[in-house]
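Board notes, transcribed. Complex of a protein with calcium ion.
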Amino acid sequence: MLKTVLINAVEAGAAEILRFFNNNFKVSNKEGVNNLVTEADHASEKAIIDVIHKQYPDHHILSEETGEIILDSNYKWIIDPIDGTINFAHGIPLNCVSIAIEHHGEIVMAAVYNPHLKELFFAEKGSGAALNDKKIRVSEESRVIKSCLVTGFPYTYINTPDGPLEIFERFVRKGVPVRRLGSAAIDLCWVACGRFDGFYEHKLEAWDSAAGYLIVEEAGGKVTDLAGNKFSVYQHKVLATNGKIHDEMLDVINNRKEL
Ligand code: IPD
Ligand code: CA
Ligand code: CA
């Protein structure tokens, strides 16, 4: 039942994405000039929450645009109604709905759906991960120098040693391809299915990372913060890899090793 409601919820959100995509929609700004929210984000969020609350009226919700709807429940749904809003607003078909379900503080089920490519990623704790019902696995690459990586940059830049541009430069100077797709949830899923070998980002929120985190781990990958500590969706820094390049990525990110 939980899985059915989760899939119905991502599909309901995705239907709103498709309804507004390349059509007219209202846009407003959040913090930072390019941090947008559109009419479609709100419509997707409403459709998702309606599906969840119809079946589980007492479940706790944490959703990007609405914030927290706190009800006394052991279940929490962590929702990004459109991940990749800038892409969405520019007609770029790399955006998705991302929903994770937390139970007693642990992410137990997750779905990410990109309706433009018709790609539905799903994972359940302990049962593996799938893309459109086919099992997926992370890649086998064992060297960073031969890897294809992906990252993202925050809307408000953080000036810190080992910041987003410094790390990007370290990889790019050595000729490592580093892509920037504009949707952290898709980035994570594409690590899970082996298209990318690793992903890192400095400033994500729980709704960006929660679903993709479980999907990577269930596909055999590894997720930590940028210091190599156990990952929590409630902190901002994420390193997700196929596992084999994880330690070397940490060495480069923390400037302990030149590639
Ligand atoms: C953003 C995307 C982007 C990442 C940003 C996120 P949004 O989410 O995931 O890839 O670089 O940090 O905020 O705003 O499109 O939901
Ligand atoms: Ca997001
Ligand atoms: Ca969003």
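The domain at 144-253 is CATH 3.40.190.80 (D-Maltodextrin-Binding Protein; domain 2). The pocket of calcium ion (ligand 3) is lined by residues 41, 64, 80, 82-83, 85 (CB under 6 Å).
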